[in-house]
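Next comes one such specimen:
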Amino acid sequence: MTRLAICPGSFDPITYGHLDIIERGAKIFDEVIVAVFNNQSKAPLFSVEERMELIKESTRHIPNVTVDSSAGLLIEYADQKNAQVILRGLRAVSDFEYEMQITAMNRKLDNKIETLFMMTNNQYSFLSSSIVKEVAKYKADVMDLVPSVVAEALKKKYNHK
């Protein structure tokens, strides 16, 4: 049986913190599906299709990673894909409380699928897509925070030369 993990998120845009979790997860699982979900409480900068393309470009070097999207419940998506694990990255203790709520609900809905929390590398513990967008908006250099394809996409979105 293939060990399959779903790595869900809004990825608006994907950062090196996300990539850290994806790359390390790909070493543990036979297959990792990076699943783009639309968080209704956020106004995304990039469309789902744009985010998927940025993730595909950023994970091209990882052969056992695929990219997909879903508009439904994560736990239903994981079940449809026959995933055993939901892989979630944690940056700080503040992430843990929110993630525990989500995990408890997912467990209530389907207790066959486990959630694995992985701490991101310390150098990315401050990093979020929101912070990246905020500094990119004001023309700050984000090359050490996101893959180059993402940095270029941010420049285009904000009409920076």
About this structure: The mean pLDDT is 93. The beta strands are 4-9, 31-37, 65-70, 85-90, 114-119.
